[in-house]
């Protein structure tokens, strides 16, 4: 049974064609992954499916009366509500039924009619079928799986970080159990353990879902089909992500073969027309070939995205110990963790893991001097001349600025041609160089940040979740660049597949505490 039918979808964004006459169907129980290079139009497709963006052309048809749940990390919530009370709102319809049931029980004290008894039976059956009396344990199960119980279920929502808040909103969405889930990058704010829990949850999810994700190990576990956005088309493949890669490789070779064969035929026809249309004896035949050429359905030229070339320049360092942390407490108004004590050695590639919201980003911001330490201290070696810092939040001083202006302003002595080359090296397409940064996809914005970082020679790189939003090619190139960086790296990441063969030491942040 088709839950969603997309027919002849065409859409252009900022003069760039994203899709042209593309069609696909989502069937009952299908677990669909959406993939494609940064800027291909994955998030735009989600917005079109949710009717937040009107496509240029095409039909989006959902099955009548179907319940659709989408992840909105910026949803308006009651900031004074506790986490637990907010999660209970996922069952508000059941609580309304309980309220009606209790009112009927009160009426039964004075009147005992068949009509009331039937209503009581109906409401009671609904509550029993939906496990109403097990709601609190269901909330506990989902909250625990996503690491929310560690925050304290009585915590007020306004006291949560952005990542914690997004996690709570995801938990509510899962508790609502819609017939179709639509999730855009749900693992960006989850740690390894919680990504694993979510993948197990989604594998057994009885409804259908559509997920955009750059975490390909996660997609491999949860997907039963893949929609790939490439060459201005959306093509659906059966099977998980690994199966899709094999199928796509074969189809790509066939596509290139067909394109080249057609180009040869076009050239042959054009040559014949040019030579024969002026001769009276062959003009009719030339005209016939001209009509054939006009009617021919042209195969789009394969446009392969250029792979990024990322390189970090290191400044020589003579000290053995790069960083000493002693009795350090981090937080905003109160300590998030016990006091920490640890050292980082020269050329070490240290990966810090731990639950989202526990204080990893806060530690990095404290080391960078963006927020003060609550107590204790830390000391970088005197030989450290420059620290390169990658903050995970996509924040810009001026959202209307362009990548060209951002890099040019940071490096005023650089010629515009050089700036364009460096942006191209980080796989920023030339059509995006002069586009407002806020209109670019998350992956494209992340690449602009990486470009800026590659132009800053440093002794040490401090990176907070740099793989969020990045496509596979850029992740692989970033991993290679970090491996080759002849300096020290402190990396916070939830993506084990990224740091597995990069790190010289992986440590949970709790283990750094005294």
If you had to describe this structure to a student in words, what would you say it looks like?
By secondary structure, the protein is of the alpha/beta class. The chain contains 16 helices and 17 strands. It has a 6-stranded mixed beta sheet with strand order 5-6-7-3-8-9, sandwiched between helices. The longest helix is centred in the middle third of the chain and has 36 residues, at 241-276. The model has no long low-confidence stretch (mean pLDDT 91).
How would you concisely characterize the structure shown here?
This protein is an alpha/beta fold and 514 residues long.
Biggest sheet strand line-up: 5-6-7-3-8-9
- The end-to-end span amounts to 57 Å
The description of the largest β-sheet is: 6 strands, mixed
| Residue share in β-strands | 15-25%
List the defining traits of the structure above.
514 residues; alpha/beta; 6-stranded mixed β-sheet; 5-stranded parallel β-sheet; 16 helices; 17 strands; 38% helix; flat
Q: Helix and strand layout, with pairings?
A:
Layout: E1 2-13, E2 16-27, E3 31-36, H1 42-49, E4 57-62, E5 68-70, H2 83-88, H3 92-108, H4 114-129, H5 135-145, H6 162-176, E6 180-184, H7 192-203, E7 208-212, H8 216-222, E8 225-230, E9 233-238, H9 241-276, H10 283-295, E10 321-329, E11 340-345, E12 349-353, H11 360-367, E13 375-380, E14 387-390, H12 403-410, H13 416-425, H14 442-454, E15 460-464, H15 472-484, E16 488-492, H16 496-499, E17 505-508
Helix pairs in contact: 3-4, 5-6, 7-8, 9-10, 12-13, 12-14
